[in-house]
Design brief:
CATH superfamily: endopeptidase domain like (from Nostoc punctiforme)
Shape: globular
CATH class: Alpha Beta
Number of helices: 4
Number of strands: 8
Strand order of the largest sheet: 3-8-4-5-6-7
Order of helices and strands: HEEHHHEEEEEE
Length: 196
């Protein structure tokens, strides 16, 4: 096969892969936006849930549940993925909760655990003050103060001034779309498509 033809084929395949990834993140953004139509009360209680594919009651949740539910709409079960990784690599995860073994009921619902998981299996992106660095489908983590972690998904809708994308999150008022990207200290920025 001539060299130029090989180059063209490689270029086309790379372009298709990049388009497929962009399409995944737009679908993730859309899945997160769908969640804003569901009435959810903020409830950080511990729930015993099924595994795999378990979820807290549909009318309850916290910030992590927004991320978990959006990924689940695309066929990715973060409960299962985090649990399997913690079983093999428990030492890599925070020991904040005094546990010595993984707990599939709650581990994936904790922001510090998701940060470790996304860093291990996704793409770690820079934490900047530049709006253009945050794209639809990105996962952003914040410190709300006094070490209170928070997480949300970047949506494919821009702020009124057109300068930054909005965030789907649950900070206490349910699953909402908000202009809050730079309201708190950003502690993590990731991209994960389930193939890491």
């Amino acid at each position: 096969m001539p060299r130029t033809l090989l180059f063209l084929l490689a270029f086309l395949l790379t372009g298709q892969a990049a388009f497929g990834q962009a399409d995944f993140y737009l679908k993730l953004s859309s899945a997160a936006l769908e969640l804003t139509g569901q009435k959810v009360s903020y409830d950080p209680a511990y729930f015993k849930i099924a595994y795999p594919g378990g979820d807290v009651p549909a009318d309850k949740g916290v910030c992590t549940d927004v991320v978990i539910r959006a990924y689940r709409k695309l066929g990715i079960d973060l409960q299962r993925e985090v649990h399997l990784d913690m079983r093999k690599n428990f030492q890599a995860y925070p020991k904040i909760w005094g546990r010595s073994t993984p707990d599939a009921n709650i581990d994936h619902r904790r922001v510090p655990n998701l940060m470790v998981f996304f860093a291990r299996h996704g793409q770690v992106k820079p934490k900047t003050k530049k709006p253009e660095d945050y794209l639809p489908g990105d996962i952003v983590c914040w410190n709300l103060g006094v070490n209170v972690p928070h997480i949300g998904l970047v949506a494919n809708i821009k702020s009124k001034d057109g300068k930054r994308y909005l965030i789907v999150h649950n900070i206490g008022g349910g699953q909402v779309l908000a202009d809050c990207l730079f309201d708190y200290k950003i502690t993590g920025h990731y991209r994960y498509n389930g193939k890491g």
